[in-house]
Description:
11 helices; disordered N terminus
Amino acid sequence: AAQELFRRQTMTNLTAVSIFLLRGFSAVPQLQLLHTATFLLIYLAAILGNISIVAAVTHDARLHTPMYFFLKHLSLVDICSVSTTLPRALVATTLGSREVSLCACASQLFAFVCLGSTECFLITSMAFDRCLAIYRPLVYRAAMSPETCVSLVSVAWGSGLVFSAFHTANTFSLPFCGPNVIDHFFCDIPPLMRLACANADDHEASGFAVSGCVIMSCFGLTVLSYVRILATVFQIHSAAGCWKAFSTCSSHLATVLLFYGTGSSAYMQPSSSYSLMQGRMAAVFYSILTPALNPLIYGLRNKDVKGALQKLYPRGPF
């Protein structure tokens, strides 16, 4: 009985942490103000750029096609994703309030993982859309009907919710008892697992396995789509036809490379080889720069979007 009482008291102490402290953008206080100003400008640019994409696709009838339907939802995800992490970090750095409750931290992690995984599924759907448009143009309209597009987006959001629920439960089922300083500017999985009092190897292995299966499946489907696209493009005899077919995919291909290039460096590695500085830098690229660059990629490289933005901003730089 005494041993059982001691065990219960120990577990109570292990779960005693209810407040975390976020380190912020930098461990060097002198750089915090510079980072805050820089990331505030990037945040405003990301919000303005993605809102512009959503408005352009919504108001221009020429963009009421499956490809731009997915692009609009990708921009909505980017707006929500960058707003999940940056505003709190900017306010905390400005006011010097670094505290975040356990519930708020779990909510932020859930939202961030949900939006990131939803973006992954959307990018895969966009690859399938481009593949079908080039490989099977005669059945494209029938196959990619509005109902199909809505179903694909719904599956992306639903899968993101399930994926995020698993990772949130997997992370916060660990006990947190001692150090409560998260060496990051938002609640993320790797730095949180480093704070756990218990051995997190099993949790890390299960999270890594699930993430690996989901991400590699999406990446594999995207690669297969582009293999089919390239095989079809190479069968087109005219150079103009080849360029026209490939140009419709160039913006999406740049998004794919940006998403998987930054995301894999941030999350597809075990915590044993996780570097705090490397993790923070990778998170900056993945969670801040990627949402800011996506509107530029589509706004500058896609003629249809560029034309719609010129109508939206007649005196703009487009």
